[in-house]
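queue> holo job accepted (magnesium ion)
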Amino acid sequence: MMAPRTVSVFGATGSVGRSTLDLVGRDPDAFEVLALTANGDVDGLARAAITHRARFAVIADERRYGDLKAALAGTGIEVAAGEGALIEAAERGADWTMAAIVGCAGLAPTLAAVRKGRTVALANKEALVSAGSIMMAAVTRSGATLLPVDSEHNAIFQCLASGGIDEVARIILTASGGPFRTFTREQMGLVTPAQALKHPNWSMGRKISIDSATMMNKGLELIEAYHLFPVGLEKLSILVHPQSVIHSMVEYRDRSTIAQLGCPDMRVPIASALAWPARMETPCQPLDLVAIGRLDFEAPDEVRFPALRLAREAIETAGSAPIVLNAANEIAVEAFLDGRIGFLDIGRIVEDVLARSNLGPAASIDDVWAIDLSARQLAERLAAELIN
Ligand code: NAD
Ligand code: MG
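queue> job finished
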């Protein structure tokens, strides 16, 4: 029997984190849980740490340290809190690390695991959007293995096993179009957070659900793909496919197009990364194409969904545009979820912050943090102005 692989999950209480632990927990002989982390959900983290017999539990919010310590008293599980502890957990060196913190908050631990040359399963797309070049350079330097978990990127990663990257004619990222795919701008102006949180196909965390409704999610994924698969922006395209059955495709120069299909359950791409380069059993539903009946496709609409244009322009502008785009979007999404701004204000704030920011290069990770912070502050000010 093979020795168990050690697994750490960053963002263990979230949607991707819980799906990951669901798979890990099904085969306790194969996996041993090293570190689990969460932001403020002490109960969720303590429960997961006990269930999966983790060795180390880290709560990012330092104010919750005492609560976590109390919840895990007598279990023998080591407890720590704060951003430094997140990085320490990343550096402890699991065989396989899931990066599933939401937002740029996941950047430091993800980069720490990459710099240690680890195998990192990447769900945390915002980290790659903000620090793509730095992260990919660190992967090359350390010899880390980066396994894409975002369903589209995991699909592309699987399709790329069919040919060389230099033989790719086009990478086609599919997009469901979100809950407002058929809405006019006028209709979108009236939608509530509850409506925007209802994704037609996927059950996900709150932030990515709003990103899917604005289609900023696909914009972030375009930037993510740009870094993960170095074929150039002109070979990356987006195709709206409302059923979310084809998760993405790669067209080769001979015009053979390879697609990856599956039911919309994140455990499929997570399992692919967890067992890579082998395959594992999952409890997921097999694909029933007769029941699905038909697959539809549409061109993306950058006018109704300006986030798609903003993300494409951010790649073209390069420099710090993607950092600013991501930071402004994180703040605007939060403001929308809090009921402080309207749905269409999200795109307006992102566009405005981009227009008012210096988009020069970001050479170091400290530059990334500084640019991220000033974009957040500007986005907060613009959101406050909208309320007044
Ligand atoms: P979620 O909101 O459900 O969970 C986020 C996790 O991150 C939680 O464990 C939370 O405690 C932790 N966290 C939040 N803020 C933090 C902070 N400041 N510091 C430390 N930890 C923090 O999010 P999710 O839907 O699971 O998404 C996680 C990531 O995966 C995102 O980047 C998202 O874009 C990506 N992703 C998610 C899905 C999905 O189906 N949910 C699909 C593809 C990609
Ligand atoms: Mg995705």
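queue> DSSP finds 17 helices and eleven strands in the chain.
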